[in-house]
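Sequence and fold
=================
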Amino acid sequence: MTPDPAPPARSSAPSARHATVPLTKEPKEPRELTEPGPPEHDAPPPPELAAGEHDRQHPTHRPWSARRLPAALVASVVLVAAGAALFDVVAVRAGRAAAAWRRNLADELATRPVDDVWMLTGAAVAAAAGIWLIVLALTPGLRHWLPLRSPAPGLRAYLDRDGAADLLRDAAMRVPGVSRARIRVRRHRVKARADVRFRDPRQVKDDLTAVLDEERDGLALARPPRIVIRVRQRTD
């Protein structure tokens, strides 16, 4: 009787048994034969369909600006006005006379008519400032950033408009016949202007449309803008 072989020593290299596990794994064909099912339910969806469903489940919105500068301006004005008024009220309560600026302001507000030029100007400035603050509070801002499609919930990515314009301009310059291209990217539309030195301008426009559409789709924008192309024949 031969003695049992000693167990192999442990080492950092993978063992032969672990390497052969995938090769000896039981195939799934018998199970599929014993439990037949419609193949369309077992097969994974196409990548295009899966990507579209994933994008619909995780929409991407525009980023919201922090509005640091308007908030700092409003806070500074309110702080200065409230601090001055509070200091004067405390001084009056302490037995001192009211400040001259507060007495003049109270007299002007009490004596001036409503249709006075200064009253109308002040009301217009206050109304404009209020409308400006309401617009800032209800709009996201950061119009220079374009949202990209989100691959996962909670993940956000954005592309700068100038960067998108540079990519589209490089793609336009690769079209034969285009000597110069100017691209302006907006939220809903891309304006492309191209100078043609040779070839038929209509053929150049068709090629330019196809190239820019492909490049725009490759940017993975959440809301792809519409592309408007204008070509101009240059002979000088």
About this structure: Residues 1-57 have pLDDT under 50 and may be disordered. The beta strands are 145-147, 158-160, 178-185, 189-196, 226-233. The first helix runs from residue 16 to 20. The CA atoms of residues 91 and 183 lie 63 Å apart.
